[in-house]
Amino acid sequence: MVSNIVVYGGSGALGRAIVSTFVKKQWNVTSIDFVANQEATTNVLLEKTDSLEEQGRRVTGAVAGEVDAIVCVAGGWAGGNAASNELFANSELMWKQSVHSSLVAAHLASKNLKAGGLLTLTGAFPAQKGTPFMIGYGMAKAAVHQLVASLAGPDSGIPADAKVNAILPITLDTPMNRSGMPGADFSSWTPCPEVAERIHGWATGEIPMTSGKLVEIVTKDSQTTYTEK
């Protein structure tokens, strides 16, 4: 029987790596994003003008049947401290990109995730403490961390034996990051295909995981470790 995964943010750098990995492993892959991923089995296209409620209706109306895994890697980055002229706009954008997408993924899990299935969201390593130079980003990612704890508890609305966690990368090795930080130490950046393989291991049960955990992803000298917190 063919397995099914939904990748929320399937046209971003990490999303594309996840879609590609699971397609190669013969999974049916549904990509949800503003732009289609031609490698995916199915695409659900969002509108940037959608409210949270409209986005939720669009996604839950488009995904049918049971799925084995839902992975939300939608998001972005914007900086700014409390004095920044862009504080409000950037914080609103971060909330929409990270929290709204995670909430819709959680609601989708309540309707379509199989018993024992996997729900993985995306937090951030720095958001485990204060982020004074990127307040909106830190607040949004910290909210995702809290959502994971809530979803792993009893009566959260998702299948009782479902597994939920969040990945907490520091810096992913993406074309955008390389162009923005050309002088950085790339050996401390995490390759997206490697994260995709880890998620596949969780989804298949080949790699053990504990529900409700935040998974720190740290790369040093091109070696990556995954630590549950």
Helix content: 25-40%
Chain oligomer state = single chain
CATH fold-level assignment: Rossmann fold
Please give the alpha-carbon distance between the first and last residues: 34 Å
Whole-number tally of structural domains: 1
Just name the CATH architecture.
3-Layer(aba) Sandwich
CATH class descriptor: Alpha Beta
> How many runs of DSSP E, i.e. beta strands?
10
Mean of pLDDT: 95
Which runs of at least 5 residues are low in confidence (pLDDT < 50)?
none
Major sheet:
8 strands, mixed
Helix/strand order? EHEEHEHEHEEHEHEE
Strand ordering within the main sheet: 3-2-1-4-5-6-9-10
GO biological process, one term: L-phenylalanine catabolic process
Subunit structure: Homodimer.
Keywords: NADP, Oxidoreductase, Tetrahydrobiopterin biosynthesis
GO molecular function: 6,7-dihydropteridine reductase activity; NADH binding; NADPH binding
Entry keywords:
two-stranded parallel sheet, 8-stranded mixed beta sheet, 10 strands, 229 residues, Rossmann fold, globular
Question: Quick summary of this structure?
Answer:
By secondary structure, the chain is of the alpha/beta class. The protein is built from 6 helices and 10 strands. It has helices at 13-24, 52-62, 87-112, 135-151, 175-180, 192-204, and strands at 4-8, 28-33, 42-45, 67-72, 113-122, 163-169, 172-173, 190-191, 213-220, 223-228.
